[in-house]
Each structure stands twice: as C-alpha cells, then as structure tokens.
Design a protein that fits this description.
Layout lengths: L12 E10 L4 E8 L5 E8 L3 E8 L2 E9 L4 E5 L2 E3 L7 H13 L1 E3 L3 E7 L8 E7 L2 E3 L7 H4 L2 E6 H9 L6 H13 L3
Parallel strand pairs: 4-10
Antiparallel strand pairs: 1-2, 2-3, 4-5, 4-7, 5-6, 5-12, 8-11, 9-10
C-alpha cells in the first residue's frame, strides 16, 4: 500500500484514499493525488491481491482450461491461474497449488517467465507467470462453481501459439504466457 505523502518519480503526490467497497476478491477505493502543478485529482482504484498463471507444457502440448467468466458471460480458453489469496504464500507455491487444483498436475519445478500489471489505468493487480514442463498426476480440487464446470484441454504448442496470434485466444495472461514461453523455449 502506498503511504500518504509519497511522491512518484514524475512528481505526483499520493494524498490518501477512501475505501468505497470491500468485496470478496477486490476492493474499490477513491484515491486523491496532487499533480506536479499542484492540482488535486481523484481516481477510482481497484486493489487486487495479485495472481499467478502457469504455462504447463506436457508432450509438446499446452494445458489449457476453458472456464466461464461472468464479467464477459462466456467461456474463455486460458492457462491455469489463480489469485494470491493465502497470506505469506510465495508466488511459486501459489503457482504449484493452482496447477494441482485446476488440472491435477503437480509440477516438479516452476520457472519464472515474466510478470505484468493487467489494467494499470485503474487496477494494481500484478500477475506472475511461470513455466512448468515436468509433472506427476494428483487429484484435482476445484475451487468454486466456475472451476467445477471448467474443462481441461491440451493444445499442440504451435496451435496454441497460432491461436494467440490470430485472436482466438484473447485472455491477457494466456497471451503473455504463451508468447513468453515461446520466447523462452526458442520457438
């Protein structure tokens, strides 16, 4: 959390914020700032605990989930992912846990690929993306109704990469994860 009075490198000063809504996953706040010119401005800010995503590659296929997303009222094809909702849990451990829960694979190791902010105009969510290539099967442990109804799909790596490039896959973490994995693997 940003401390009141802190000044950004570009000269904006954070005055403070008021929480407008505290939800199950996110909170909505109204932040007050002072511009370098001395003008006071307010901005709506969504606070999110952060998330992880895993590009799981098994036998040259990317493990994807097709999951209902209420905000879009449709299903999206995505890499396994989840929010950082266990206090003190390192992101690597969250990545392992989410992969186990969603697709029933325990990775022998995860490798950090990249991280990104999703929607910097209004949200502080940061997503850490990992690569996993060696697994052992474990029971799935879906969390919530969307996961209970998701399906697991395995797409050949090149087909998944083509789907990212031609717009069939539009989920941001999946686009970034597949491209980062392609770069890492020299594809």
């Amino acid at each position: 959390m940003t401390e009141p009075g802190s000044v950004s490198p570009s000269g904006f000063t954070f005055i403070g914020e008021d929480t407008l809504h505290q939800g199950f996953v996110i909170s909505l706040a109204r932040g007050e700032f002072e511009t370098p010119d001395g003008e006071r401005i307010t901005r709506d800010i969504v606070h999110h605990p952060g998330a992880v995503a895993v590009v799981a590659i098994e036998d040259d296929a990317i493990v994807l989930v097709r999951q209902y997303r209420a905000a879009l009222h449709t299903e999206l094809l995505e890499i396994p992912a989840g929010r950082r909702d266990v206090d003190g849990e390192p992101p690597e451990a969250t990545a392992v846990r989410e992969l186990e829960e969603e697709v029933g694979l325990r990775p022998h190791a995860v490798e950090y690929l990249t991280g990104f902010h999703n929607s910097v105009g209004f949200c502080d969510e940061f997503v850490s993306v990992y690569l996993a290539t060696s697994f052992e099967p474990v029971p799935v442990a879906h969390d919530g109704p969307e996961e209970a109804h998701m399906t697991v799909e395995r797409w050949p790596f090149e087909e998944a990469l083509a789907a990212v490039m031609d717009g069939r896959i539009t989920d941001g973490k999946t686009v970034i994860g597949v491209l980062a994995a392609a770069r890492r693997l020299g594809r």
